[in-house]
Amino acid sequence: MTLAETARALFATEFGTEPEGCWCAPGRVNLIGEHVDYAGGLCLPMAIPQITVVAVRRRSDHLLRVRSSGFDGVDLDLRDRHVDGWAAYVAGVIWTLDPPGLTGADIAVASDVPVGAGLSSSAALETSVAVALADLCGLPLGDDGRDRLAAACVRAENDYAGAPTGGLDQRIALHARPGHALLLDFADGSSEHIPFDAEARGLTVLVVDTGTGHELADGQYGQRRREVEDATRFLGVESLRDASSADLIDDPVLRRRARHVIDEIARVQKAAELLRAGRIRDLGPLLDASHRSLRDDFEVSCLELDTAVDAAVAAGALGARMVGGGFGGSAIALCEDDRVDSVRKAVADAAVQRDLPAPTFLRATASGGARRC
User: Fold this and answer.
1) Average pLDDT, the chain
2) Is 105 in the same domain as 143?
3) Of 4, 112, 137, 248, which is least packed with CB atoms within 10 Å of its CB?
4) Are the C-beta atoms of 283 and 32 separated by less than 8 Å?
5) 104-111 and 63-68: which strand pairing?
6) Boundaries of each GHMP kinase N-terminal domain copy (predicted)?
7) How far apart are CA 251 and CA 230, in angstroms?
8) 27 phi and psi, to 5 degrees?
9) Rg of the chain (C-alpha set)
10) Number of separate domains in the chain
11) Residues 97, 149: contact at Cβ < 8 Å?
């Protein structure tokens, strides 16, 4: 049974009728460019094959009913602008998007995007709902329309789910193309689709879910964002995109935070140049440097992520790094196809040796964005 069929079946069971349709959106991995979206930086994410599907039918009574096999169901009156838990990602999109003519909805959710793994399950849910409502309510779904949907989803996550994310996840979920990464410029809002076909080069982007879930709304992500804002003000620039060095910052913590952002933006620029030239294998050292910076300067890694990254590189991965907001979640390793099994074994063995949770693995291929399915 496909995820769309699963969502339809859940909808019929829970609501006793059929949905008007099903829509889906992908999770993502960010190849490089972590914790720089909210600093006016550059990021290079790609969508993955794992998706969230929503089956939706409109209502006319201000009631929102949301069901998922993985979470408790939620019923709420949309006129009451308050909701806790996972349904905030759904209701928040409705409130911020305010689609014409919509006063309520029944929604059933099915997903194979791992939750808490740093693969943006929240944005996959938000953007699948946003595309569904736009399609049902006649909102535009071209590039400009999708930009507006992304902005609404970011506001929903910031204002209603309480996670101060910067917009990377929502934009890649809405704009992704198969076989491409998406270079996102958060200074001017521009983007560029860059070919990324690792399989054709005999390469695999291996995702390692360390089994240590993270939660961006728990305060640590917000603290890092505030530190970046403090460093920006100290340097007297509009954003750290305009800074060339963090050396003038007296505070050692703020200096490290700014150094990560400045250096990470430069790494994204170099990575984009390599991909335009078809030199995917040469990304490895940039991935390694990104992880060291996130570990040492930004301090968002953890033992589980460091163990996975170190083991992958020692087993022959071309490069590896943590992905997502940090404090748990997943890492990626760029591997030659014939090294994937040995890298997987090395990472799993390293976790056992350190008495860490057993990691799980998936292969990430550059996939398409949110759509009707």
Assistant:
1) 95
2) yes
3) 248
4) yes
5) parallel
6) 89-175
7) 10
8) -75, -175
9) 20
10) 2
11) yes
